[in-house]
Amino acid sequence: RGFIDRVVGLEEKRVWHELERRAKQLPDNYYQDYKVMQKYLFVTGPADWNSQKFIFTNLLDLLEELASEGRKVTDMTGSDVAAFLDELVIDLGSKSWQGQYRDKLNRKIK
């Protein structure tokens, strides 16, 4: 990647648009579920781009597979979807937004 690309984040933007394009190709109910999970991950998920890209790419892979098999999202996640997503973040070993805020708070208050 060139210097300008790194500064502006063109590659990240291209990848993000590709993920969104894939999501929009899902059947409507799977797309809606993806958007809800995406919103949750924006608040509680990983803070770094590589972990976000990994999670959203794999989440789309799973949803595409479920859709092709006609299975429900909860067949993959279980009834506690939030716990499933939290485990994805934990398994990555990535610092979540919550973890970053927690660390910042603990550093500021002495």
Rg: 16 Å
Main beta sheet, described? none
- Count of alpha and pi helical runs: 7
Number of E-state strands: 0
Distance between the amino and carboxyl termini: 42 Å
Structural class by SSE content? mainly alpha
Query: Can you give the helix content as a percent range?
Result: over 70%
- Global morphology: flat
Order of helices and strands: HHHHHHH
Q: Which consecutive residue ranges, at least 5 long each, have pLDDT under 50?
A: none
Mean pLDDT across residues: 87
List keywords for this structure.
single chain, 110 residues
Topology at a glance:
Blueprint: H1 3-8, H2 10-24, H3 28-44, H4 49-69, H5 74-77, H6 81-92, H7 97-108
Helix pairs in contact: 2-4, 3-4, 3-6
Outline the structure in words:
The chain has 110 residues and is mainly α. The protein has seven helices and no strands. It has helices at residues 3-8, 10-24, 28-44, 49-69, 74-77, 81-92, 97-108. The radius of gyration is 16 Å and the shape is flat.
Quick recap of the structure?
The chain is an all-alpha fold. The protein has helices at 3-8, 10-24, 28-44, 49-69, 74-77, 81-92, 97-108. It has seven helices and no strands.
